[in-house]
């Protein structure tokens, strides 16, 4: 009878079980440092428990995971044993300094730190010192002394040194950027046919010293003081009725706004004699361009300020650049394009401006022309304030009479065609237009008009004479501005004004004899 011999496990003694547990524990110990890793780890754990650090549990979990992974591997020898020791040594942050072997360029390991907080402080200090060393090396390698605050005498000596003795280095990248910018500007100038006068640049500084003042009319000191006294006397006695509930008039800030606009007037004025620097265009050609811009402005129903800004941009650009006759219309349409983008709520597109010129210029030419115009004017578009701002203020003197205001609008637009008004400030142009309208309608220039305009009747007479002479010119009624205001919508203001001017032009003295000069 066959029997199965089954081996029954024998009960082990206490000595055998202790020896088996010891063998099991030995498999979890690191083979490269069986005599040192265990005691060090146990001692570190005891210190951590004593100090109350909770973060040591992370090191234990990491160590257990590494031991489980390496349990099934074969015993490593040689270089592999050293690499395994390096990997396991990184799992315990407290004994890392003693486990990691020294490599090339490494300093001797520091003693283990019992308190992890102190270890972080030491590392932060080391990083700060390293960053400070790098910053100091960028400044100068010759600075090895501590920082000392210089005295006032030393500061004065440094200020007196010439520039060649100071450590100043030019960045070569800045020169390259300047060269690229100049090349791009030359490309645009060649594209739109704009030429820059080098002779004008050479003679610009001495010309500024000897040129005549741009502001007209020129008055003496005594007469200016007399006008100021008359204006101050009227302001002291005249009572201005302010409607605090009319938010559109912003009465609380009106005076400050107009003072700021007066400060900007002279900055946005062109050179009154810029045509002397042009080689191909004349004042008559400018008048034709302005008349065409009036048609474009009226055709697309733009705001009145858009027209004034566009013509101001044209005059200021021509004051700085020499333009050929073939590109004069491009300058005008580009100026209108810029003004519409600035002032209009819904500005016409660039394709519509191409259509305005009957495809005389392409879309690319207008866009590149916009860039060169804005660069020339240094993007100063909002500095100009049209005469309509002051006209609205002056109209308060007659309670916004519709006939006076409509007629004054026509008269102020007539000044756009006359180059002699380039040296007149917008505030004075508005006052001249209102004064001419009052004269034609049989009114007077009373204290209310002096108060709101800031000009006396004597100051407005020369401009009034120039304007009447312009209206009485032969063939002036053919201009588009006359056709525009001949409509019933504008009360046929141009027809009435031209008839009045032809009747009274001989009654007034010539404008040359009426110039205000002491």
UniProtKB/TrEMBL annotation:
Domain Cyclin-like: 291-375, 389-469
Keywords attached to this entry: Cell cycle, Cell division, Cyclin
Gene Ontology annotations of biological process type: cell division
Family: Belongs to the cyclin family.
Ranges where the Cyclin C-terminal domain occurs: 385-499
Superkingdom of the source species: Eukaryota
Disordered: region residues: 1-38, 75-96, 192-215
InterPro entries documented for this protein: Cyclin, Cyclin-like_dom, Cyclin-like_sf, Cyclin_C-dom, Cyclin_N, Cyclins_cyclin-box
Composition-biased stretches (Acidic residues): 197-207
Basic and acidic residues biased stretches: 75-91
Protein name, per record: A/B/D/E cyclin
């Amino acid at each position: 009878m066959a029997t199965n011999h089954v081996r029954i496990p024998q009960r082990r003694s206490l000595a055998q079980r202790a020896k088996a547990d010891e063998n099991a524990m030995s498999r979890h110990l690191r083979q490269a440092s069986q005599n040192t890793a265990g005691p060090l780890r146990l001692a570190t754990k005891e210190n951590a428990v004593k100090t109350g650090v909770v973060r040591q549990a992370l090191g234990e979990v990491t160590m257990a995971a590494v031991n489980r992974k390496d349990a099934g591997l074969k015993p490593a020898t040689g270089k592999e044993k050293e690499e395994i020791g390096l990997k396991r040594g990184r799992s315990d942050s407290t004994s890392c300094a003693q486990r990691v072997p020294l490599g090339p360029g490494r300093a001797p390991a520091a003693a283990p730190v019992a308190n992890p907080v102190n270890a972080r402080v030491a590392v932060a200090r080391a990083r700060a010192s390293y960053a400070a060393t790098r910053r100091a090396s960028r400044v100068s390698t010759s600075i090895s002394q501590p920082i000392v605050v210089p005295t006032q005498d030393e500061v004065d000596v440094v200020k007196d040194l010439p520039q060649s003795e100071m450590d100043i280095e030019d960045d070569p990248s800045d020169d390259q950027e300047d060269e690229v910018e100049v090349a791009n500007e030359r490309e645009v100038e060649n594209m739109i046919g704009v030429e820059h006068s080098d002779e004008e640049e050479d003679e610009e500084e001495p010309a500024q010293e000897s040129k005549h003042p741009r502001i007209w009319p020129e008055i003496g000191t005594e007469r200016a003081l007399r006008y100021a006294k008359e204006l101050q006397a009227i302001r002291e006695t005249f009572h201005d009725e302010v409607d605090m509930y009319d938010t559109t008039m912003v009465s609380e800030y009106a005076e400050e706004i107009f003072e700021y606009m007066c400060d900007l007037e002279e900055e946005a004025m062109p050179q009154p004699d810029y045509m002397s620097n042009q080689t191909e265009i004349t004042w008559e050609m400018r008048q034709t361009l302005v008349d065409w811009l009036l048609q474009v402005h009226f055709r697309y129903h733009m705001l009145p300020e858009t027209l004034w800004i566009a013509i101001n941009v044209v005059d200021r650009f021509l004051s700085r650049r020499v333009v050929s006759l073939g590109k004069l219309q491009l300058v005008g349409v580009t100026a209108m394009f810029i003004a519409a983008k600035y002032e209009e709520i819904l500005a016409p597109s660039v394709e519509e401006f191409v259509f305005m010129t009957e495809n005389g210029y392409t879309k690319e030419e207008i866009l590149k022309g916009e860039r060169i115009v804005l660069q020339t004017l240094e993007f100063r578009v909002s500095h100009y304030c049209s005469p309509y701002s002051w006209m609205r203020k002056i109209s308060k003197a007659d309670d916004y009479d519709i006939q006076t205001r409509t007629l004054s609008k026509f008269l102020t637009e007539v000044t756009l065609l006359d180059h002699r008004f380039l040296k007149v400030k917008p505030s004075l142009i508005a006052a001249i237009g209102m004064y001419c309208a009052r004269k034609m309608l049989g009114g007077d220039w009373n204290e209310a008009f002096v108060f709101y305009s800031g000009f006396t009747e004597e100051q407005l007479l020369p401009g009034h004479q120039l304007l009447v002479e312009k209206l009485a010119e032969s063939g002036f009624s053919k201009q588009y501005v006359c056709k525009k205001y001949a409509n019933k919508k504008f009360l046929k203001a141009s027809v009435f004004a031209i008839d009045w001017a032809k009747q009274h032009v001989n009654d007034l003295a010539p404008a040359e004899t009426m110039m205000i000069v002491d």
